[in-house]
Amino acid sequence: MELSTSEKLQRAVDFLKSGPPGEIDDVFNDIRVIIDDDKQLQEEIGPILAECNIQQFYAAEIEHPDSSESSKTVALLTEYNQLDSGSFIDYDAGLSFDFDHLRLEVKNVSVCDTESGQDEFRDQLQAEANKYKDEHFPGGHIKVFPNLGKSETSLEYVICIINNKYNPDNYWNGRYQASWKFNPDTNELNGELSVRIHYYEDGNVQLAISNSFHLEISPSADYSSLPKSIFSLISKEEKQFQLNVNKNYAHLNETTFKDLRRKLPLTKSKIDWLKIASYNLNDELSAVPQI
Amino acid sequence: MEDDSNDSRKFDCALDLMCRLPPQNIEENIAKLLEIAPDLTDGILSSIDQPLKIRFDDISGQNFLVCDYNRDGDSFRSPWSNAYFPPLEEGILPSTRARKLELVANEAFKTFTRLYYQGGLSSVYFWENDENLACAVLIKKVNNDNPNSKGAWDSIHIIDIEERGRQARYKLITTIMLYTINNQGHVGQMDLSGSLTREDVREAPVDEINSHVVNIGRFIEDMEFKLRGSIEDVYFGKTKDIFNSLRSLNNQSNIMSQRELQQNLYSQLKNRN
């Protein structure tokens, strides 16, 4: 029995979510043609694309509504800076905005009156985040948010790191994404890090790494140095992670790959096919059952 | 007419989709795709390779690999006993000539697999297509013992043989599917996987019946050598470079000042001349 469009879409959601970085439009277009029901799709796709964009920290360019302050700035779409109304908030620019996930357009940018201007700790973390970004993620984005999803009593700060490099002309796309949560009450720093790379010139090769970190910041008497300590720990952990991934590549080539299939047989020479094909011939032919 | 072009567009999009989604989940993705578009079933199953499945031949007591070319209904023919599992009455059997070649080739590729894969399982199937011979050579190797270094390799070679007197023309289509998981130094789950398909054509002399096995063997050995090299050097190497471009290991400010230093040095040296 043929599935309804909604049921088909339910199954296609995973395609969108698990699709490689930078190729969501391609995956969506494929799904659109395969499902072949644009009207229904248009009605139902919105929330799914929203989920994908938020999950991938989509970087949206926003412009200040007051044209005299004509500075453009990049805001991230994450679950941590989304208000109950569905709007997103960018603390650095002091702006809130809506987002059309289907057309990837920013709408209704307005100056928001939040108390965030008073959140000095966030501002200090953001200042450190900017330095860290410049040193290690040129072209990427790092944003610090007070976690809106959490209750007021246990305030938590979330550091969102995203660096996408899309190069479809050369058949590759990559994403580095991390979120680090710092709890000032417990001094715990927990991180989730993922990397996705797709290289598809005459093939389909994908790297997927996901890792989590559970750390603790040693409490310091000097609260003002805390943001620096947090970023030096993040930097140290991410550096070690990067070195370890490179170590894994070496192991992959030297061991994992060789254990699957050797480059050459142990004898270091290619197979003598004349020998192995004729060697068996006589024995085997006599064993052929008559059909 | 319109329906036809719509169907082929759908099919092209389905192929494009499968080339984008993670090769790690190819089986799940194909299952979901076919639920969405059951009309694409035959086309998708015959054009997209999936990891090889193993069956047991309880007549010969050996495992064998299955594909579309040894399938009849829901049963698969074992290259060892020539019987179908689950048992099938009057299942399609290869011609005497094809079966003879099949027996020789299976023994030869057993040796090939032992030497290159140090273990692993191979199965070869021959059949005749409108007078022409064709064959499928399947190889599978799985390493599951070390949780921090796991891997699986599937080779699928399909060869069409066109006999022209004492020469034969071999058309080979090879797909290699490779899955690896590594976790040295606690990087979490590092999953690097991929699938590549390549085609090639070769002509070679045929002096006796087993010449086909010799020619196919050499052809496949060369193709696997080339593809293994591509995967290791080009494909995996490329993802490593991309990874290292996503995060700069050294501080950008250090890199910049180093560059400045070099430039200064260079211009000083130049001025000296």
Automatic annotation (TrEMBL), chain A:
User: Domain of life, per the record?
Assistant: Eukaryota
Q: What keywords are annotated for this sequence in UniProt?
A: Actin capping, Actin-binding
Gene Ontology cellular-component terms listed: cortical cytoskeleton; F-actin capping protein complex
Coiled-coil region(s) at which residues?
none
Q: Which BP terms in the Gene Ontology apply to this protein?
A: actin cytoskeleton organization; barbed-end actin filament capping
Signal peptide annotation: none
The entry lists its GO molecular-function terms as: actin filament binding
Keyword Amino-acid biosynthesis annotated: no
Q: Which InterPro entries match?
A: CapZ_alpha, CapZ_alpha/beta, CapZ_alpha/beta_2, CapZ_alpha_1
Q: Does the keyword Transport apply?
A: no
Q: Member of which family?
A: Belongs to the F-actin-capping protein alpha subunit family.
Sum up the protein's function in the record's words: F-actin-capping proteins bind in a Ca(2+)-independent manner to the fast growing ends of actin filaments (barbed end) thereby blocking the exchange of subunits at these ends. Unlike other capping proteins (such as gelsolin and severin), these proteins do not sever actin filaments.
How this chain assembles, per its entry, is: Heterodimer of an alpha and a beta subunit.
Q: Which PANTHER family match?
A: F-ACTIN-CAPPING PROTEIN SUBUNIT ALPHA
The protein depicted here goes by the name F-actin-capping protein subunit alpha
Native source organism of the sequence: Smittium megazygosporum
From TrEMBL, chain B:
Example of a GO MF term: actin filament binding
Keywords noted in UniProt: Actin capping, Actin-binding, Cytoplasm, Cytoskeleton
Q: Which GO terms describe its biological process?
A: actin cytoskeleton organization; barbed-end actin filament capping; cell morphogenesis
What is this protein's function per UniProt?
A: F-actin-capping proteins bind in a Ca(2+)-independent manner to the fast growing ends of actin filaments (barbed end) thereby blocking the exchange of subunits at these ends. Unlike other capping proteins (such as gelsolin and severin), these proteins do not sever actin filaments.
Q: Is the Cytoplasm keyword given for this protein? A: yes
Where, per UniProt, does this protein localize? Cytoplasm, Cytoskeleton
The domain of life is Eukaryota
Give a GO cellular-component term.
cytoplasm
Kindly name one Pfam family recorded for this protein.
F_actin_cap_B
Q: What is the scientific name of the source organism?
A: Smittium megazygosporum
What family is it from?
Belongs to the F-actin-capping protein beta subunit family.
Q: What is this protein called?
A: F-actin-capping protein subunit beta
Record note on quaternary structure: Heterodimer of an alpha and a beta subunit.
